[in-house]
Amino acid sequence: MKTYLVTGAAGFIGANYLKYMLAKYDDVRIVVLDALTYAGNLGTIASDIDEERCFFVKGDICDRDLADRLFGEYKFDYIVNFAAESHVDRSIENPQLFLMTNILGTQNLLDAARRAWVTGRDEHGYPVWRKGVRFHQVSTDEVYGSLGAEGFFTEETPLCPHSPYSASKTSADMFVMAYHDTYKMPVTITRCSNNYGPYHFPEKLIPLIIKNILEGKKLPVYGDGSNVRDWLYVEDHCKAIDMVVRKGVEGEVYNVGGHNEETNLEIVKLTIATVHRLMTEKPEYREVLKKKEKNANGEISIDWINNDLITFVKDRLGHDQRYAIDPTKITEALGWYPETKFEVGIVKTIEWYLTHQDWVQEVTSGDYQGYYDRMYGKG
Ligand code: NAD
Ligand code: TYD
Question: Residue 52 sits in which domain range?
Answer without folding.
Answer: 2-200+231-261+318-341+366-376
